């Protein structure tokens, strides 16, 4: 039996699926992969919930509205969920992390080496903003990020795959002191939000219709994720956990990259705090 969420998304039932001679094998394979990832996702949610104390719960079936999904939409949704699952799995691993930076305001960045010899970075901070505010700034209004983050030149949504998944093209800005240099990214972004927490995940993706742009080095981001959880007894504050996992490409020495990435996390968080403070002033 297909999970109810897949049946509702695709607007079909399992008996109907078996009788659809015209359904392409690739679409069936994608649906099958989605079921497998959903099952693994549920298992991982239990472990992540225990580790972070998040008590993750899936949306009730009656809260999921039926919609017609194309093969492409299923593919991007599966890619986004898979990136989220892998990134959260990295966060759940307790061993191997070492402190890179500890700021006086309580922000801490740790790092560890993952298979393939790449180093990933985990930032943990408490922000003066609600889960809803942060979700709105970082996902819903992602195309406006360049307005408050000078390290970004542009983010454009190329494909909106339902409310929780999108494909974006991002171009970093040419800023003074940027050791890595200007890059562009093509990514699938996936999210899930509850009242007191939100998950944002993503990974690099390739599209024949959108090859690397002339003049840019196309970097690859992910699997990466952000976990936003309301501070207990103060819903106006949020615990912000960000796993940064990036291959900047090009010919930069690893030592330079490993210095630049955690600093970029601190810069991003500083700009985010300023934006949140501006929202509070306007409010």
UniProtKB/TrEMBL annotation:
One of its GO terms (cellular component) is mitochondrion. May interact with TSPO. Pathway: Steroid metabolism; cholesterol metabolism. It is found in: Mitochondrion. Its main location: mitochondrion. PROSITE patterns: START. InterPro entries: StAR, StAR-like, START-like_dom_sf, START_lipid-bd_dom. GO terms for molecular function: cholesterol binding; cholesterol transfer activity. Residues 93-281 form the START domain. This is START domain-containing protein 1. It comes from Xyrichtys novacula (Pearly razorfish). It comes from the Eukaryota. Keywords: Lipid transport, Lipid-binding, Mitochondrion, Steroidogenesis, Transport. It catalyses: cholesterol(in) = cholesterol(out). One of its GO terms (biological process) is intracellular cholesterol transport. It holds the Pfam family START. SUPFAM superfamilies: Bet v1-like (SSF55961).
């Amino acid at each position: 039996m297909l999970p109810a969420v897949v049946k509702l998304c695709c607007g079909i039932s399992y008996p109907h699926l078996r009788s659809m001679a015209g359904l392409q094998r690739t679409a069936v394979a994608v649906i099958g992969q989605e079921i497998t990832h959903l099952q693994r996702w549920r298992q991982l949610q239990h472990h992540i919930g225990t580790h972070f104390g998040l008590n993750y719960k899936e949306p009730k079936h009656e809260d999921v509205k039926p919609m017609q999904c194309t093969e492409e939409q299923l593919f991007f949704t599966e890619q986004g969920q898979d990136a989220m699952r892998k990134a959260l799995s990295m966060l759940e691993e307790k061993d191997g992390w070492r402190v890179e930076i500890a700021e006086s305001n309580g922000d801490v960045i740790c790092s560890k080496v993952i298979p393939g010899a790449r180093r990933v970075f985990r930032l943990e901070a408490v922000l003066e903003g609600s889960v809803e505010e942060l979700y709105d700034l970082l996902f819903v209004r992602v195309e406006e990020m360049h307005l408050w983050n000078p390290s970004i030149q542009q983010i454009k949504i190329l494909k909106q795959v339902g409310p929780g998944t999108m494909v974006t093209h991002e171009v970093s800005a040419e800023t003074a002191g940027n050791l890595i240099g200007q890059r562009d990214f093509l990514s699938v972004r996936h999210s899930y939000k509850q009242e007191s927490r939100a998950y944002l995940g993503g990974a690099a993706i390739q599209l024949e219709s959108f090859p690397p742009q002339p003049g840019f080095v196309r970097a690859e981001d992910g699997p990466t994720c952000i976990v936003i959880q309301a501070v207990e007894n103060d819903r106006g504050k949020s615990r912000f956990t960000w796993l940064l996992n990036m291959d900047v490409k090009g010919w930069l020495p690893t030592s330079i990259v490993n210095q630049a990435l955690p600093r970029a996390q601190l810069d991003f968080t500083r700009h985010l705090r300023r934006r949140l403070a501006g929202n509070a002033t306007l409010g």
